[in-house]
Each structure stands twice: as C-alpha cells, then as structure tokens.
Amino acid sequence: MGLNFFNIELICSNCGKTLKSGDEIVAHITLPSEKKMPVGRMDRVLSKHSDKVYCKKCSE
Ligand SMILES: [Zn+2]
Description:
It comes from Bacillus glycinifermentans. This is C2H2-type domain-containing protein. The chain contains two helices and four strands, in the order E-E-E-H-E-H. The protein has 60 residues and is an alpha+beta fold. The protein has one domain. The strands form two sheets. It has a two-stranded antiparallel sheet. Strands 3-4 form a two-stranded antiparallel ribbon. Strand 1 and strand 2 form a beta hairpin. The radius of gyration is 12 Å and the shape is globular. Bound molecules: zinc ion. The site of zinc ion (ZN) has 8 residues, from strand 4 and helix 2. Zinc ion binds next to strand 4 and helix 2.
C-alpha cells in the first residue's frame, strides 16, 4: 500500500503527459445533478467525470 494519490492514471488531454501526485492540474468538469454528485476518491472522480484534464503548462 503506497501513498500514491493517483491510482488511476490521469493524462493531460492536450500533451498526453501523465499527471502525477503533486502536479498542478486543471480539470473541466460538468457539474452533475445533486443526486448524481460524485463522491469518492478525487482521482477516480476526476477520471470518471472530467471532460478534460490539463497539466499546468497546457492550462496557461
Ligand atoms: Zn499538458
């Protein structure tokens, strides 16, 4: 058991860089309805619900 924040690999939608724990990221998420509000691990929620994820470089 590690302390890895990202068990699920998140990849920048623009440059394909693998986003690691400690990286600053920008995610575009469609806010779901209250009933379907995602609850859980941040990485899982992001990989499942985010439309696009960018590394810091691509978000600037
Ligand atoms: Zn990028």
